[in-house]
Amino acid sequence: MKVNKLSFFVLAVLCCIAVSSCSQQDYDIQIPERVYGDMNLLNKNLTKDLNSSSNLSFEYQISDANEYIKYNVYVENNQLHSKLSYKQNDAKWVDISEIDFNFKKVNYKNGMNDIVEKHAETLKKKLDIAIINRVGNILEGLPEILYKKLGRNEYNNELTLSIFYHLAAFNTSIRAYEDKSKDCQCGVNNSYLSGESPFFCAEDVMVSADEAYDLIKERSIIKKSEGYEFNPKSLLQYLSNESGEFVSASKLDRLLKHEFGSYFKKLNKKERLRIRNDYYQSSNIIMTKTPSEYDGWPIDPTCWLYGARAGSDCGCCGNYSGPCYGCSPACYLHDKSCETCEPSWYCLSGCVPGPC
Q: With 70 as the cut, is the pLDDT of residue 120 above it?
């Protein structure tokens, strides 16, 4: 799929800005755009048991742009150090993201969500949202490229998988901007703790764009037959562009909420009341929050459109069963992807194929 050439960011965008928390600054929902490029491995010593000689570094050049990402991760004194750098044209490299942690600490995985949340707040204070969004889009495609470059064995290494901590931090910052949240939040993903997947915030589990398109299209048609003219065109177009790929579930929910906002504003009082009644009378809806928490909307649009979907105990997401934790297509779609333990760069060796 060909991506239109994007305008270059100037390095000045990396300057620190005065932001006191993740709730500052207004930010409109952006439709994600997949970024393509070429990866060059610089150094690689992916030992099975991490030691002082273990390291990995690579450089990634964006297609049709003089824009670069460099990643370096190594081990020193039981600490795993990882650094992400960025530059444009012939400018100097700028270090934009660094994460360190003690991988020898017992149950260190249990603390990674806190580390990612704190780092997301640091990114939010340090970088402009334009560069956060840009780098986040670039990072989204790197795991699959690394998997193809390294193969399953070397990919399934803590050094390689450390890139997911940075991706999660950037995604968390973006979510906070778009949701206008007071905090940078990264929910616990149990499949990471059990070794069935790399690190992902629970909000960002990966789902098939094709399966998401089919589900959203189906539910939109059902709503139309019920007398509602809700048609999330931008979301469906985004999923159509991503056909054959896997995308973050939180992006689906945020784009849907954004489109529902525009739709709801156009309704008269009687039509709004009808949607409220339809929402509250649905027996399959599980309320997890009060209506006031949904960005000022009287209902959660994902609940209104989808209802509650059941989870399962199969595949790389075998960590719950019964109703979803919240009203979202995420767990249903994620389980369907897990039936075949795909994609390979997301479902690790602990994945057990379905059926769900």
A: yes
Phi, psi of 118 (to 5 degrees): -65, -40
- For residue 56, the cross-strand partners are 44, 73
Prediction pTM value = 0.73
Assign residue 80 a region (left: φ > 0; alpha: ψ between -120 and 50; beta: otherwise).
beta
How far CA 268 is from CA of 197, 230, 264, 304, 351, in Å, comes to 46, 14, 9, 18, 49
The whole-angstrom separation of Cα 145 and Cα 248 is 17
Alpha carbon distance 141, 137 (integer Å): 7
Q: CA-to-CA distance for 105 and 198, rounded, in angstroms?
A: 18
Tokens of 248: 């973050």
pLDDT tens digits for range 149-200: 999 889 999 999 999 999 999 999 988 887 676 678 888 887 788 887 899 8
Q: Long-range CB contacts (< 8 A, 24+ apart) of 15-18?
A: 15/128, 16/125, 16/126, 17/125, 17/126, 17/127, 17/128
What is the separation, in whole angstroms, between the first and last Cα of the chain? 31
Cα separation, 232 vs 54, whole angstroms: 47
CA-CA-CA-CA torsion for 102, 126, 188, 60, nearest 10 degrees?
A: -80
DSSP 181-247: -SS------HHHHTTSS----GGG-EEEHHHHHHHHHHHHHHHHHTT-----HHHHHHHHHTTTSEE
